[in-house]
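Audit log entry. Action: structure prediction of a protein-small molecule complex. Ligand: zinc ion. The ligand was supplied as SMILES and no pocket hint was given, so placement is left entirely to the predictor. Protonation state taken as written. Sequence taken verbatim from the request; no trimming, no tag removal. Recorded inputs:
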Amino acid sequence: MQPWIIRDTGTIKYITLPGWEAEGVALAFSTRLGGVSQGIHESLNMGLHVEDQDELVLENRRRLAAVFDFNLDAVVCCQQVHGNQVAVVGEADRGRGAFRLGDEIPGCDALVTVQPGIFLLSFYADCVPLYLFDPLQRVVASAHCGWKGTMGRIGRHTIDMMNRQFGTRPESVWAFIGPGIGAPCFEINPDLAARVNAEFTGWHDIINRDRQDRYTWDLQETNARILQAAGVMSRNISICSLCTVCQPDLFFSYRREKGLTGRMAAVLGLQY
Ligand SMILES: [Zn+2]
């Protein structure tokens, strides 16, 4: 378990892990602070799909990229369809999804690369970002874990892809589970609670039922256990338990703002 920090560049603030940076990994989860967007998107909105002005979003993305000294043409995004499909990307995919909607890698929620200088970018407002790094084979992967992707065990599918394509051994993998909707805030209906319990048999304490028969779900813990079941060592999993719903000063939240809000970004790439 490696400690995460919030770094203030003087322009923007983002969450990172110094232990990963020391291995030449560019890793960030942006906050909403330090951007140029206005109103419900104030201020570091990274999403082009949320009715913000494109030129403001691109300026925000450039500010985040500047921290790691890359240009937006080094970015690759996927479509994020709340599925569990994984794609491997490289040089040929440079710039996809970085400048406009519609040319992202379609139909998937996780990306894997071994190419230094390619930066995976994905977008969040309550869903859980998963970052994976194999320091032996030098593979990185990021996965968008909403409740549907979590039910589909996207974390395991991503590890499987790293293993098949690049020989990653799960016990070597480092994982970071970034900020998302916290367990106390993620209330779900009884039908979904039953489905979660059926999918993850024996993991009953990931769902909490209170005295008012209110069900809540710990998405971060569920994703941590999915990784452990795939062979990732618990000591190699770090979690940032900041709740995006509870921290309006730091984060956009889809649930808190009833859908009308901006997006944070997860950045992951190999510097060398
Ligand atoms: Zn919360």
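Audit: result stored. The first strand starts at residue 5 and ends at 8. The chain has a mean pLDDT of 97.
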